[in-house]
Amino acid sequence: MPSIDQFRSEPVVETIGGDRTMVLNMGPQHPSTHGVLRLLLEIDGETIVRVKPDIGFLHTGIEKTCEAKFYQQVIPMTDRIDYLCPMTNNLAYVLAVEKLLGLEIPPRAMWIRLMLNELTRINSHLVWLGTHALDIGAMTVFLYCFREREEILKMFEMVAGQRMMTSYFRVGGLAMDLPLGFLDYIKNFVAYFPDRISQYSDLLTNNPIWLGRTKGVALINRADALELMLSGPTARGSGVDWDLRRDMPYGGYDQLEFKVPVETAGDVFARYQVRMAELRESNSMVKQAIANLPGGPIKADAPKIVLPDREKMKTQMESLIHHFKIVTEGFTVPEGEVYQGVESPRGEMGYYVVSDGTAKPYRVHMRSPSFANLNAIGVMCEHNLLADVVAAIGSIDIVLGDVDR
Amino acid sequence: MALQPAITDLELLKERPAVACLLSALPEALQAAKFDRDELTLWIEPILLINALELLRSSPTTRFTVLADLTALDWFPSEPRFEVVYSLLSHERRERIRVKVKVSGADPYIESVAALWAGASPFEREVFDLFGIRFQGHPDLRRILLPDDWEGHPLRKDYPVEGYR
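Structure tokens for the assembled complex are given below, as produced in the milestone run.
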């Protein structure tokens, strides 16, 4: 085997087309790359010959940081990976740790998690739709989407005190119960939201400019999608009928009724249709979660793992000791390893948590959907026009925090 | 949901499709197996990794056609120091397994699976970048997240959390 030095300072830019082609740099500060993605585009006139993504501009070493934190301190780190769906990341991580501990959570906590998780999906898809349409030139949709997203962020602020970095889920339940009046607020939202989805699709679905920019653009077939490890709506737009919520249910999804939209065309428009249908499904799932929401505790009865109520901590010696112990020493987790995959708005978000029996995780690996889905950009853009690169990036819905971690 | 003790006895696990498939077609590849918290882990002989993955992927009883994840673990200071972890997923059978290979610390390298799953290529680059494990036959093995001139491999356990000063 050659030594590691050989891999250093390799030339990034070399053309395969000889004199006919040129290399064009796009990003990392390009508004249509949804963050700090840099693409090296080799073009022949206006046609793409090859695309090479260059990532890592947002790498913060979260996986390494997690190894130096207690299990409960990792939760805020998970928000910061994919900042458009913090609840989904929280859920994947706490489910993994609960599986390691063999801990069961009360039904109320489970249903609240489901409800917020689907709201997060709506939130994330609204940002996708708004920015994707904006990239292609439809300004209005962006303003409408962010109007509804604002409502969802208000709800997150109501439950967690934070609009984006919620850190609301805890190992063994939730940080606190829902505030008074929250359910009325959310019921109002789910009642009018389907009309709003129709508003967006009225603006786009039959719009000839939109169709011209999306139909038959950035194609990827089913075999390639599987080979390239794609998941989520990006894969479902190419006919991969797979959704972890339905096929490998976690966290109570087996108790919800929903359809998994699948399209076979494999172009930007197919992925658009999948996500638009998912918005309606998620809205209906939030409704079901509200209808099924039971009363009861929101934390598991595990005093050595779950922080006690504030009131108990101030009045009972036992609770005070537990509180002190958990905050200063963390809780130990039995040796073992767990991979928990959840369906994030972008695809399979997997948390691989390894415990060596101490209070800090031995390793937390995040299998992020954007990192894998970015694989597709090369296949999608080949032989397409230069202007369609932004449509392709928008349609795989990457979050660069998620790619670089 | 109390924790059950892990099962590591191959005799007890031979009914599992993945174990049965390997035992019948490629018994020398399977080093050990563990069933813990509803998840099956198989340790594979490093030189037979590609054959074993190909078998698990194509055999009609297993059909692990999707590579869901690829990462590594560092067990410093024990030897063999590294484990490369492949998380396989079967859409047809709705099952996951974890395949692990042990990699020595002195000269860490393993065969690349980018020929089996093209999508594994950036994952292998990430492992190379953060652990310094080299993948033989990888089409474009360079650092992916860190700058090209970075010193060291941050996810190794002997790399300080705050970095080298």
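The longest strand of chain A covers residues 336-344. Chain A touches chain B through 51 residues (CB under 8 Å). Further analysis is deferred to the final report.
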